[in-house]
Amino acid sequence: EARFTSDRQIVDFQQIKGWAGRTRTGDLAEMTEVSEDSYIWPRVTSTADNCLGGACPRYEDCFVNRARRAALAADVLIVNHHLFFADLALKEDGFGQLLPGVEAVIFDEAHQLPEVASDFLGLTLSSHQLAGLARDAIADELKEKSGVAELAPAAEGVEKAAADLRLAFGVEPRRGAWSELDGNKVFHAALAELKSRLGRLTEILERAGAKGEGLANDFRRAAALLERLHMIGDNPPPEYVAWFETTARAFSLRLTPLDVAAPFARHTAGGKKSWIFTSATLAVDKNFSHFQARLGLADAATGLWDSPFDFQRQALLYLPPGLPAPAAPDYTARVIEAALPVLAASRGRAFLLFTSHRALRTAAELLAGRLEYPLLVQGSMPRAEMLDRFRAHGNAVLLGAASFWEGVDVRGEALSCVIIDKLPFAAPDDPVLRARAAALEEAGRNPFIELQLPEAVLALKQGVGRLIRDVGDRGVLMLCDPRLTGKGYGRIFLDSLPTMRRTRHLDEVREFFAAPAENIHVHGEAVGDRTLSAS
């Protein structure tokens, strides 16, 4: 207990220890009694960095290896995108495999693939990785008794240098291109110190590695992190964008490919394997070219199937008149004023989806005390708990940002209205977007038409898809952004949505909710507009 610094940590550890003896899968999602961000989790779990593989004394009993053995014997295997790409990376590097060979790969929610591929084809160096390395090196030195006295001080030096580098970014959390730091002498001095400290720890671990597998693995990790640090900080490849992101206490340094089409196409081209990509949001105005270009699927066969839902009967699109341009200082306040009578007509039962956390916080302040319905605000509790409460209340109003735009399924009357504040264009100062847009401009192409607009259309379709999840659902979709009717590109957004009745009159919204719902006994799968691309 001397290693714990609070009663909460002791309780968490005891609960995890008891669960570890009962669980049959080792899936952390089972352990709901302990918070995901508990201090204990990183100290009792293995990661790709510190896993000892076959050298681990519990290798045969490992839950991951049990699952892997079951997967190798399966006829049909269901995994998430990240595990699939992790397996792809292992095979490409010649380090083995996580998943068996297959005859066909079917991706659901395939619209997420370009960003998932960007993560796996890029590089990340984070303060969490550095702190984890330092912590494990000290623990392994105590366990394996290397006798290298300078190891612990060197590891502590890396952790301190990482903390100092975070401070050098400035107090406020931010994200930006690496080039923004060119004139920051404090930052580059802190970066040089981290390189020196990490280099020193790597040298010490190389000598200590002969004392045990744990320290040998720590050496491999340190060497890999040092290589990443030099690649990101000294000479990033021209086909990548180097950027950074900070939170209150942590940082990430990243290399992201400008284009994933060529490397992804290497895996899908040739061979006898079939690749099928399916999602409700692959097409922009019934055209697949944007998705195909992002993943190098120019020759893929495509198909578009109608939704089983009758949007003309089940839904009403409300475009409120009189709202200012989204850049107006009082825009969010005006959106809330326009939304209040709609929320009264819907009797709560609504999602308000925002394109920024700042707008969400402003809306929460404006709505506090003005609703007769339960108000649930993202950030006040875990996402799963918010959704459980929303369903249980039956008349709640939920305010959410990006994580509520997709992957949320609330069927029935509990969700009868979705209100979206703005068209979900990516932030113009996003470093990856800016670099990709600049690359398109240099090639004589139009980044707004080829990149920003189609990405925003697909994101809007995801948000809209929260409303009608079953053939028995009814609801009003309120899109507040005046650019839908005031800009030429607004038509592309509207034409990409399911065909439904539209109105600019609040009275028609009230009439929709006042009309008795038809008694529909048939229930269908919540698929929305399904689109498919296969090769």
TrEMBL record:
InterPro entries: ATP-dep_Helicase_C, DinG/Rad3-like, Helic_SF1/SF2_ATP-bd_DinG/Rad3, P-loop_NTPase
Top-level lineage group: Bacteria
GO molecular function terms attached to this record: ATP binding; DNA helicase activity; hydrolase activity, acting on acid anhydrides, in phosphorus-containing anhydrides; nucleic acid binding
One of the GO biological process terms: DNA repair
Keyword Cell cycle included in the entry's annotation: no
Record's keyword terms, sorted: ATP-binding, Helicase, Hydrolase, Nucleotide-binding
Domain Helicase ATP-binding: 1-162
Family statement drawn from the similarity comment of this UniProt entry: Belongs to the helicase family. DinG subfamily.
Protein name: Helicase
UniProt organism field: Candidatus Muproteobacteria bacterium RIFCSPHIGHO2_01_FULL_65_16
